[in-house]
Write a structure and sequence with these properties.
By secondary structure, the chain is an alpha+beta fold. It has helices spanning 2-14, 43-46, 51-81, and strands at 16-21, 26-31, 36-41.
Length: 86
């Protein structure tokens, strides 16, 4: 069981999820073990954007990516963990 958990954790480090905000203008990619691997911001989105709004959109996208990453982790690790938090 421990080997299966280690293999699942290693696989999670390789899998990614992507979340967007601002109608797709901001994109955050994160691994299944909650490491942010990519941040993309559409340059056209910045033309009419103030710093506070951009910050809010990036924060929203990061939190959505974290949620998706945790869901992926629960999906992959849940059967192995038997409902234990990880």
């Amino acid at each position: 069981l421990q080997n299966q958990m280690e293999e699942a954790q290693a696989a999670l480090a390789e899998e990614t999820v992507t979340a967007t905000a601002g109608g797709g203008a901001i994109s955050i990619t994160m691994t299944g073990d909650q490491k942010c691997t990519d941040v993309k911001i559409d340059p056209a989105f910045l033309e009419d954007m103030d710093a506070e709004m951009l910050q809010d959109m990036v924060l929203s996208a990061v939190n959505l990516a974290l949620d998706k990453s945790r869901e992926l982790q629960a999906e992959r690790m849940g059967p192995l963990a038997g409902g234990l938090p990880f």
